Amino acid sequence: MGLRKPPLYDVHADAGATFTEFGGWDMPVEYDSIKAEHVAVRESVGIFDVSHMSELEVSGPDATALMQRLTTNDVTALEPGDSQYSAIVNDEGVIIDDTVVYRLPDRDERVYLFIPNAGHDEEMYDRWTSFRDDWDLDATVEDVTEDWAMFAVQGPDALDSVTDATPDAALDDLSKFQATFADVAGVECWVARTGYTGEDGFEVLCPWDDAETVWSALDATPCGLGSRDTLRLEMGYLLSGQDFDPETEPRTPYEAGIGFVVKLDTEFVGRDALEQQSEAGVDETFVGFALLDRGVPRHGYDIADADGEVIGVVTSGTMSPTLSEPIGLGYVPVEYADDETEISVLVRGREKRAVIVTPPFIN
Amino acid sequence: MFEIPDDRKYLESHEWTTTEGDAVKIGISDFAQDELGDVVFVELPAEGDELAAGEEFGVVESIKAVSDLYAPISGTVTAVNEELFDAPELLNDDPYGDGWMLEVEPADTSEFDDLLSPEEYREQTE
């Protein structure tokens, strides 16, 4: 089966990008230098093509009931134009995917757009429609992943960059996690003050066929998935399929450090399992660590205690471009989770000293 | 177009070696550093260690990849470019110059005949 391609695949290729497979999509991983792209986002502004992200729209009289019962956060708290980070969990409370849920403005009834990770669109469409049918709810679910291109404009100069292309919209009035429809270079786009880098910025959804008009109107350094990964890692943000995965790294929101998106006073699939864990506490938890010795921690490496006994696993790691120090994320028993706890990471069989650091790794 | 100097020989796995004098230098090619992207870590043997032609002698890591290093020739390590430990980006900036990795006293200079000429290596990278 061929890989799915973003609408601007050829534009990226012409710009010298190298590509990587991610979630079934062939996406730019790097244009010139991951480090340079990383620095552009931390110090000025970068733009990422994240059209591989999934988009599903849920409308109809029971849209709220369906969203509420399939996500862990409380969608009834969303005002028009608001969004929230949330988790989609199974019966056991294990995270299937994480997502941002938007409530669209200017509609008579409540309409939601939610953004699962790359390659999860079909799975979520099936999940939403089969539960809808089981529960006999009146809601319309549409997979609009290939209706929308998505760009993330991120960095301290992101507001200037997006404002230059949207003369009519008061984007500075948007607070974090708010969104609005706005005219970008003559194209009606969904513009949200969200991101995955730790910097101020916007995520812009535009119609698939207008992608090039919008992309070229946004003045920022093109960035690939390589720097997107190093940027989110410095913040300690989870990567779906890597820091949690229902098959290879089954974790609940509490274990993964996102208990704040679980609203136990709402009714949702997995609620009872999570209530139980909330009362009993977790055995293992998501932590950050910094390597003190030379080396680069990577996904799948073992974490050991000071005596060399294996206690956990690295789920993500890199050489932090901002700090020029090796950093990583992973799971350890809670008794090892305090800051400054000494651990080690087994890099190709060799113990490298490390200490627990609660993310973000940068200020 | 990648730089492939005429004054050395190459391995299919993108290492180079000089061929003149008592001590030869070993490193990785311009093509290799470009494929790797920003190099962030290098692991090399110590002075006095023995290399065996075709065997692993170290590791180079970029942000996105881990790559084993293979010895073009057998011999004894006589010097290690320790600057790479603090400044691995030298491998990106100057792979044939300041980015050299090891100096080696060759055990058997006939092994040079088994390596790729610059022309052969160029064909492989095209």
Compute the gyration radius of chain A: what is it?
20 Å
- Report the total helices of chain B: 4
The sequence of SSEs of chain A as H and E is: HEEHEEHEEEHEEHEEEHEHHEEEEEE
What portion of residues of chain B is helical? 10-25%
Helical stretch count of chain A?
8
Number of strands of chain B: 9
Q: Which class of secondary structure composition applies to the elements of chain B?
A: alpha+beta
Specify Rg of chain B, calculated over alpha carbons.
13 Å
Side-by-side strand order of the widest sheet of chain B: 1-2-3-9-8-5
Overall spatial form of chain A: globular
Work out the number of β strands of chain A.
19
How much helix, percentage-wise, in residues of chain A? 10-25%
The major sheet of chain A is characterized as: 6 strands, mixed
- For the termini of chain A, the CA-CA separation is 43 Å
- The gross shape of chain B turns out to be globular
Can you identify the CATH superfamily of the largest domain in chain A?
Answer: Probable tRNA modification gtpase trme, domain 1
- CATH T-level topology of the largest domain in chain A: Gyrase A, domain 2
